[in-house]
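Protocol step 4 of 5: obtain the predicted structure for the target chain.
Materials: sequence only (see below). No template structures provided, no constraints applied. The aim of this step is simply to have a reference model before the mutagenesis design in step 5. Sequence pasted as it appears in the construct record:
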Amino acid sequence: MARKAIVHKSQKFMERHLLAKKEGRKIAFSTRAYNRCSLCGRPRGFMRDFGICRCCFRELAENGQIPGVRKSSW
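Step 4 output (structure tokens):
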């Protein structure tokens, strides 16, 4: 429950930040915006290309749920 609330709060802040940027005004506390995993809410190990953290990325990649990603072997 708490993680969903944190993710929702972060998303609302990012929406306000983007809206202010679009209108051409500066938003207060711009450094407060940071990325979180959309699945679990983890703030660290975030992969921008996929929008999820490294832990969720690994699980999804192993199950083959991320298109274009394969497990490497050499």
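Step 4 remarks: The chain has two domains: 1-34, 35-74. The first strand starts at residue 46 and ends at 47.
Proceed to step 5.
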